[in-house]
Amino acid sequence: MTYHNDHTTLAGTVTGTVFTVAANIDSQDYIKTVVLAIVGAAVSFAVSRALKWIWQKLSN
Questions:
Q1: Domain containing 40: what range?
Q2: pTM, rounded to two decimals
Q3: Confidence of residue 35 (pLDDT cuts 50, 70, 90)
Q4: What is the DSSP string of 1-59?
Q5: Each residue of 40-60: pLDDT tens digit?
């Protein structure tokens, strides 16, 4: 028995799902997502720097 691995069905399903979701999302949702990603990255960076500073103060 030969097993044939065909990825076209998987690729078609994933691509179709992505395009369907992208078509049904409003532009305001994209803007909200971008803003939240920027805020999240800034908070993550600030917390990392603060924890690094605290760690250096405690280890000295």
A1: 26-60
A2: 0.57
A3: very high
A4: -------HHHHHHHHHHHHHHHHHS-HHHHHHHHHHHHHHHHHHHHHHHHHHHHHHHHH
A5: 999 999 999 999 999 999 997
Structure tokens at 54: 């605290």
Q: Residue 20 domain-assigned?
A: no
Amino acid at 18: V
Within a domain: residue 55? yes
Q: What's at 28, amino acid-wise?
A: Q
Lookup result for tokens 């028995």: 1
- Output the CA–CA distances (angstroms, integers) from residue 40 to 15, 29, 33, 47, in the order listed: 28, 16, 10, 11
Give the three-class secondary structure for 60. coil
Q: How many domains does the chain have?
A: 1
